[in-house]
Specification:
Layout: E1 5-10, E2 13-18, H1 28-43, E3 49-54, H2 76-87, E4 92-96, E5 99-101, H3 103-110, E6 113-116, E7 121-123, H4 137-145, H5 147-156, E8 160-161, H6 162-167, E9 173-174, H7 179-193, H8 214-224, H9 231-244, H10 247-263, H11 265-279, E10 298-301, H12 305-316, E11 321-324, H13 328-347, H14 353-361, E12 363-366, E13 377-380, H15 386-399, E14 405-408, H16 415-422, E15 428-433, E16 442-446, H17 453-465, E17 469-473, H18 481-498, H19 502-511, H20 518-525, H21 527-539, H22 551-558, E18 572-574, E19 577-579, H23 582-594, H24 605-625, H25 632-643, H26 652-659, H27 661-675, H28 686-694
Helix pairs in contact: 1-2, 3-4, 4-5, 4-9, 5-9, 8-9, 9-10, 11-25, 12-13, 13-14, 15-16, 18-24, 19-24, 21-22, 22-23, 24-27, 27-28
The structure holds 3-hydroxybutanoyl-coenzyme A and 1,4-dihydronicotinamide adenine dinucleotide.
3-hydroxybutanoyl-coenzyme A binds next to β5 and α3.
């Protein structure tokens, strides 16, 4: 018998146990093991029923995603095993705990019965990987749950609770008892009943579950909200086939479409994203068994835009939060906003009124720093000003108990300087949340020069617990994301000075799949906020000696065009709709004349994309070179989760590989010739040049 699949007899019932940690993924050894186990059952007439279950924390979490890139990957063989399970002439029961996802649910659906513990969840999340279920899931799920439910589950990739799965007809019974004893008891019952075996594949999809126009409406939704993900349109095709065609024909179609998806660049990008997010949690050189500091109570300083949102993350996870403000009015406003946000969630049905009250009861507002004495972690989110933050940090160093972690939410300031101000730099790091902090998944965790390893590890773990995707960044201006954004915004503005219009720049960038071009993005975030960052950056000597550098955003601020909130910025707004504004074009023309920048009649979308994104990739390479980010995948994780970079492009570094690093490097050199390079804007990073010379891709990282 195999190491990962074992068969054991309990009386007349055979127990097939899958044990392939961490998540029992269906790699080749598991498929082979199942094949052997099924043959053993077939050959043993004394076995009256079979229970399939998994060891460890979960049932099977699906195909082994790492195998997709290897010759070992196949779905035909797995589908055959599933057919063999379904064809057995004795009842087979899948016993589910944890999550039955993708191939795991497909395995369960090939069994004759499914039982689950109440905490279990089931789903077909393949779409999140740019795929569709490839082991008959698109054909079995509609036959069990109906077309509408199956379509919804596959298009969203959402896992449903065991209770919902019972209602949907996917799970037959919830187990009151423990998993294995409960499943054994169920198996004995069905063996005794001797009912005909309820196989799924010969059934027809219940016509009552196919509302009029179901598939047409689903296709219209895709047209309305186009996505580069190759899965959804093919999932619709497969579910339609499940309704219209016999099982075998549906499976044939599914196999063909699955293959198309798997071979697509978009699915490869989404698989990259899956592993990159998980890899980002691992910190090179840090022992895995480091003892973490307990975090049971959190403090937040500053109840402004960020402070309130930051507090909500912890309140929602059930941790008490103390929020300290300088002024009563600001405190009241901040706490009021937290309540308003929770109430808005409740109005949308995302939480109950009692949950709102429970979260609010965990929040304590105060003007007294001494109230932070009991906190295990304190995050400061006061004004972005070094002097103010240094004073706050010094205070925190005094009032926080020994062992408490002190974090700063600064976007640009030197975390090492703030750490020194506390007098206890080992306890300090940056926790750079993104706005709105209660919604955005990204958390840049800024590792200071003196940050203690267990402080870093504790915060990485805590980030996961509050549902964030953490990425470690070293200390530098703007960390990973905003530092790269700077070159993108620089070129945006030069393009405007050369004669491109805001809508042209935005349209070109959006054509790549980014949800919002740079001009709309700044209008939304606040022209004043963006301009102040440039001014501050210049004051601290961080910018080149170029008066044209991001001159547009500063001029717009001076004119009171602060963006959408004032009805005008890069665009003018009518009912929040952005409209091109002749005044802005005129302003750009004036600035261009002042700085001697030549106005060009036509600028292509291709140039806009290259000029905005290739310098950004170049900066990413520099960030790797300097050790600010550990891996290209970390940078991709930042851009997908913090800046809306399309996940099906895999992030900027993965996308650079798609374009070709040599091409990116060459075009940077071309623009240096074309636009001039007095300020070094087009200097290639040494890493990028080396990669181009040696034919390396970011996916080859780490380079020897
Ligand atoms: N294949 C390979 N590795 C997987 C995996 C999979 N399907 N699912 C999880 N892992 C790995 C992770 O990479 C991670 O590895 P690491 O510890 O080395 O970083 C480890 O298992 C634990 O994963 P998580 O950190 O994500 O653990 P959580 O407890 O937070 O979540 C989970 C567990 C809910 C199972 C989550 O891992 C998950 O959603 N997994 C993917 C499920 C999925 O997409 N399944 C469909 C696969 S495609 C398929 O089945 C095709 C079929 O139709 C033919
Ligand atoms: P904000 O101006 O909305 O809020 C700051 C709050 O801090 C104010 O309510 C103020 O009264 C309070 N405060 C000032 N000094 C204080 C003190 N000594 N003690 C207690 N409270 C004090 O600012 P915002 O936007 O929330 O930014 C806070 C921090 O978060 C800044 O460092 C900023 O760079 C960072 N950040 C902001 C983002 C954004 O999009 N707004 C995104 C990511 C980080």
């Amino acid at each position: 018998m195999s190491d990962v699949v074992t068969l054991e007899r309990r009386g007349e019932t055979a127990l097939i146990r899958i044990d392939n940690p961490p998540v029992n993924a269906l790699e080749r050894a598991v498929r082979d093991g199942l094949r052997v186990a099924v043959a053993q059952v077939r050959d043993d007439p004394d076995i009256r029923a079979v229970v399939v279950y998994a060891a460890g924390r979960t049932f099977v979490a699906g195909a082994d995603i790492a195998e997709f890139e290897t010759p070992d990957f196949e779905t035909d063989g797995f589908r055959e095993v599933l057919d063999q399970i379904e064809a057995l002439d004795r009842p087979v029961i899948a016993a589910i705990h944890g999550t039955a996802l993708g191939g795991g649910l497909e395995l369960a659906m090939a069994c004759h019965y499914r039982v689950a513990v109440p905490t279990a969840r089931v789903g077909l999340p393949e779409v999140t990987l740019g795929l569709l279920p490839g082991a008959a899931g698109t054909q079995r799920l509609p036959r069990l749950a109906g077309a509408e439910k199956a379509l919804d589950m596959m298009l969203t990739g959402r896992a449903i609770s065991a209770r919902e799965a019972v209602q949907a007809g996917i799970v037959d019974e919830l187990l009151e008892d423990e998993l294995v004893p409960g499943a054994l008891a169920f198996a004995e019952q069905v063996a005794q009943r001797n009912d005909p075996l309820p196989r799924t594949s010969p059934r027809a999809v219940d016509p009552a579950t196919v509302p009029d126009q179901l598939f047409q409406r689903a296709r219209e939704q895709l047209v309305k909200r186009p996505t580069g993900n190759p899965g959804p349109s093919r999932i619709i095709q497969c579910v339609e086939a499940a309704v219209q065609l016999p099982f075998e024909q549906g499976v044939e179609l599914e196999a063909r479409l699955f293959q198309e998806c798997r071979e697509s660049r978009e699915s490869a990008a989404l698989r990259h994203r899956f592993f990159a997010e998980r890899e980002a949690r691992k910190i090179p050189g840090l022992p895995r068994d480091l003892e973490l500091r307990p975090v049971k109570r959190v403090g937040v300083v500053g109840a402004g835009t960020m402070g309130g949102g930051i507090a909500m993350n912890f309140l929602s996870a059930g941790l008490p939060v103390v929020i300290v403000e300088a002024e009563q009015a600001a405190l009241d406003r901040g706490i009021g906003l937290v309540r308003k946000n929770y109430e808005a969630s409740a109005a949308k049905g995302r939480m109950s009124a009692s949950q709102v009250d429970a979260c609010m009861a965990l929040l304590h507002g105060t003007l007294d720093y001494a109230d932070l004495a009991d906190c295990d972690l304190v995050i400061e989110a006061v004004f972005e000003n070094m002097q103010i933050k240094e004073t706050v940090c010094q205070r925190l160093g005094e009032v926080c108990k020994p062992g408490a972690i002190i974090a700063s939410n600064t976007s640009t300031l030197d975390v090492n300087r703030l750490a020194r101000a506390t007098g206890r730099p080992n306890d300090v790091l940056g926790m750079h949340f993104f706005s709105p902090a209660n919604v955005m998944r990204l958390l840049e965790v800024v590792r200071g020069g003196d940050t203690a390893p267990e402080v870093l590890a504790t915060v990485m773990q805590l980030a996961g617990a509050i549902g964030k995707v953490p990425v470690v960044s070293g200390v530098c201006y703007g960390f990973i994301g905003n530092r790269m954004l700077e070159s993108y915004l620089r070129e945006t503005e030069f393009l405007l000075l050369e004669g491109a219009t805001p809508s042209q720049v935005d349209r070109a960038i959006q054509s790549l799949g980014l949800p919002m071009g740079p001009c709309r993005m700044i209008d939304l975030a606040g022209v004043d906020v963006a301009a102040k960052v440039v001014i501050e950056h210049r004051a601290t000597g961080g910018l080149p000696d170029d008066p044209a550098y991001r001159a547009v955003v500063q001029a717009l601020m001076e004119q009171g065009r602060h963006g959408q909130k004032t009805g005008a910025g890069y665009y003018r707004y009518e009912d929040r709709k952005p409209l091109e504004d002749a005044e802005v074009l005129e302003l750009c023309g004036q600035l261009a004349r002042r700085f001697g920048i030549e106005h060009r009649r036509s600028i292509s979308d291709e140039e806009i994309i290259e000029r905005c994104l290739y310098p950004l990739i170049n900066e990413g390479a520099r960030i790797l070179e300097e050790g600010i980010a550990y891996r290209p995948g970390d940078i991709d994780t930042v851009w997908i989760n913090g800046y809306g970079f399309p996940d099906y492009l895999g992030g900027p570094m993965f996308w650079a590989d798609t374009v070709g690093v040599q091409e990116v490097c060459q075009r940077l050199a071309d623009y240096a010739d074309l636009r001039g390079n007095d300020h070094g804007y087009w200097d290639r990073s040494a890493l990028l040049e080396r990669m181009a010379a040696q034919g390396l891709a970011f996916s080859d990282w780490p380079f020897s």
